[in-house]
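Lab notebook, bench 4. Still working through the backlog of constructs that have no structural model yet. Next entry is a single chain of 289 residues. Request: give me the structure tokens for it.
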Amino acid sequence: MHLDLSERVVVVTGAARGIGRTIAARFAAEGARVVALDVAFDARSGASSGAGSDTASGLLPDADSGRRHPVTEVVCDVVDPASVRRAVEAVLERHGTVDVLVNNAGVNVEGQVAELTWEGWRRCMDVNAGGTFLVSQAVAEVMKRAGRGRILNAASFAAIVPSVGSAAYAASKAAVVQFTRVLASELGPWGITVNAYAPGMVPTAMNGFADMAPQEQDRLLDTLSLRRWESADDVADLLVFLASDAASYVTGTLVDVSGGKLATQIPSRAHTAAAAARAAGGTAPPAAT
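Model written out:
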């Protein structure tokens, strides 16, 4: 199956670093015209712009080939309606339309309910749910005029099974899921699809998974049917499909891309049994990498 995204205009929020940066790079490698939005960009990103400009041109490396692909970087605070409006106007001025929106921008605020501050709760809701609302609302009007489009919203496995201490984050991501479902039906008459995706455990600076003690990492990996950390490329693979014409009849859903996290009660049993079979010289799957 050939997923042709060449010349599609793709906007990715929260794309200065982390998963968002990988998503932007993947779409650029697929031939899309990518616009990365974030509150600020690292000077090392390779972007160049005039002094005081909120728009810059940069290059993103493709993880597979090493080639560098052009990307437009636009400063945007997704919780500020005026900033969102200016960013979308900048995209339209440069590219004339928006074919795909990836609402990747997000923050995490941890703490049990008794200790959460109102400011922390609001920050999590404002960025994760509010930012998704504001950028989707602005871009939807553009897509309506075109009679087509894809909106892809970052949820989380926390929206499916939350953890103690994640009330603000889980609630905000659950809100994204329900928002996605409603928006999918509202935009359906214009041929626009809207879907959410739920990554599992991608090691990032925000969650610190890779920096945990080995025994703590093992405890988390034991919850996965595919016993390995998720990569940002795993997420990007899904988004490229959902943005393509091959996914034209997929809308209003939450796609779990968590490696089978808690698909069964104790998925580690299968890996223990496979390791024992491998040690005994029997038929067993290869060791997880």
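Notes after review: The chain has a mean pLDDT of 89. The chain is about 40% helix and 15% strand. Flag for follow-up if needed.
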